[in-house]
Amino acid sequence: MKCAKVAEDLSLLLDDMLGSEQSARISRHIEECERCREEWIRLVDLRSKLKSLGRVPAPEYLRHLVQLRIRDAAKLTARAEVRRALEIGWSRLRTIEGVWYLTRLAGTAATFVFFLAISAAVTPAYFSMQAAGTERGGLSPEGRYQLVVGVLKNLGMRPVEAQKIPFSKSEPKINELYLLSFGENASRTSADDSFSVVTVIDRTGSAKIRNILEYPADSSLLADFNQMLMTARCRPASENGRAVESHLVMNFSKIAVYE
After folding, report:
1. Are residues 116 and 86 part of one domain?
2. What is the DSSP string of 176-241?
3. Which end of the chain is more exposed for a tag (fewer CB within 10 A), N or C?
4. Same structural domain for residues 105 and 185?
């Protein structure tokens, strides 16, 4: 053992506060080390001299000071209780205020999430342009019926006819306005041209070209059509009231008219 470690434990050894094994190791080291043995002897002599000294009597005024301190502590007790009660009340008030703001914040967040879920669940209603244009100044009976059915579906309700008749499969559609815009912006070359493509429409209504059945002579037609298809929103096919991925074959012919 090192002498520095033994010197730190000499006082504990003298007070008999070490374990038997550690006490035995320190005792062996003291017997072997002259320096530590001298330190041990000095510590034992100091302890014996301190024990031989008489007790110093307490001063006469000490009792009077203790009594004054006890009397002052009794006076301060009531003031401390009032202060403690005020601190507890203020702490409870701050806690209630924090809970109030927390509930308001949670309600605002829940409302925001609820409206996001509602807006994501509601799907737009698609109508046929031919059926809607048969009557001027409003929708046709078929268009109005489709509007009512679409609103009921968005609200999670089923019309009476749909409750009696099982859902049938519906084909995917693309709004005719996209096709009209594509035809108006097509290449103005005088040559006739045509092309056919197979498009895939996913459940969200996004469409893309899956395969080209017939390539056009003017490659710009296919590029313009692909650009139009990337920005268009289609109505996906549905089975049993659920949107499914489907394919749509489109054939386009450009005919040059001479005056």
Report:
1. yes
2. HHHHHHHHHTS---SS-EEEEEEEEE-TTS-EEEEEEEE--SSHHHHHHHHHHHHH--EEPEEETT
3. C
4. no
174 and 256 in a single domain? The answer is yes
Amino acid at 127: F
Q: Clarify whether residues 68 and 137 are in a common domain.
A: no
Claim to verify: residue 198 and residue 244 sit in the same structural domain: yes
The model's pLDDT over 164-175, given as tens digits with 9 standing for 90+, comes to: 444 557 888 888
Question: Tens digit of pLDDT for each residue in 58-109?
Answer: 777 888 888 888 877 766 677 777 888 888 888 888 888 888 888 888 889 9
Q: Which domain holds residue 146?
A: 124-165
Give the Cα-Cα-Cα angle 65, 68, 71 (nearest 5 degrees).
Answer: 150
- Selection from 172, 148, 161, 143 nearest residue 232 by Cα: 172
Distance between CA 176 and CA 126 in Å, rounded?
Answer: 11
- CA–CA distance, 236 with 124 (Å, rounded to integer): 11
Phi, psi of 158 (to 5 degrees): -120, 135
Predicted model pTM:
0.34
Write the burial class of residue 27 (CB in 10 Å: 0-12 exposed, 13-18 middle, 19+ buried): middle
Q: Half-sphere exposure of residue 72, counting CA atoms within 13 Å on the CB side? A: 6
For residue 156, which phi and psi values (nearest 5 degrees)?
A: 80, 15
Amino acid symbol at 202: D
d(CA 76, CA 27): 54
Cβ atoms of 224 and 185 within 8 Å: the answer is yes
- Looking at residue 170, the DSSP 8-state letter turns out to be B
What total number of domains does the chain contain?
4
Other Cβ atoms less than 10 A from the Cβ of 104: the count is: 10
38 and 93 belong to one structural domain: no
